[in-house]
Amino acid sequence: MTGLELHRLTVGYRGRRGRTVASDLSAVAETGRLTSLIGPNGAGKSTLLRTVCGLQPPLSGTATLADGTDVSSMKAAELARRVAVVTTDTVEPGRLTAREVAALGRTPYLSPTGRLSDVDRRRTDDALAAVRAKHLADRQFHDLSDGERQRVLAARALAQEPELLVLDEPTSHLDAPSRVEFLDLLATLAREQGIAVLMSSHELELVMRLSDEVWLLRTDGTMITGTPGELADDGSVSAAFDRGRLRFDADRLAFVIDTRS
């Protein structure tokens, strides 16, 4: 089932100094699957993510959800219920506990009083359990490790009950074991929660091992999509990332130093 579909989408910036970053993009992120957006620095990954989240308008084309709704036409309240976003921005929620931070994801559903209902509390606890962070619920957020914080932020996003979860570089502040664990968690969440998960990442080797689908955004503003194996075997990844003696080995799904030159 389609979770997000790009229809000849062109992204970039308007105005006198406006520019097109990527154009004529067509791709699908399916429900129940982890889709990873990769590409060289400056290719426009963050611009594309902001556009599909409804945070900035497309220059042309559309990004639509499962029922065909154009993300750019949605009002903020509906967008907050259907699309959840985890960014790289530092979160400093004062003295809030992990449960209280996760419960912020229920904001789009709150009554005018702003009080959590029993349903809101259950949804919050379910979200913490889904990201394997229920044991952190009563700890203060600022006391958590980076990996633990990222799990709680993912729980906050899940508490929104979205159909699309978008993450921008979610492993950028994590150590190596935590990166593997978190990407595996995202793939599990996509399947178990029945949502489409789209993330950008510089962790190319992990992405190629743990993703279901890959969107490769190239520096010329075009994009190619496929399974990790398909993009490795047809040379697309190598063409985008090989630098000098550094080569991407399609068999190992890893970077290697070419000692022949």
UniProtKB/TrEMBL annotation:
Q: Does the keyword Kinase apply?
A: no
Pfam families, per this entry? ABC_tran
InterPro entries given for it?
AAA+_ATPase (IPR003593), ABC_transporter-like_ATP-bd (IPR003439), P-loop_NTPase (IPR027417)
Gene3D superfamilies (UniProt xref):
P-loop containing nucleotide triphosphate hydrolases
Q: Which residues form the ABC transporter domain?
A: 6-244
> Nucleotide-binding: present as a keyword of the record?
yes
Lineage top rank: taxon: Bacteria
Entry keyword set: ATP-binding, Nucleotide-binding
Tell me the SMART domains matching this sequence: AAA (SM00382)
A GO molecular function assigned to this protein is:
ATP binding
Name listed for the protein in its UniProt record? ABC transporter domain-containing protein
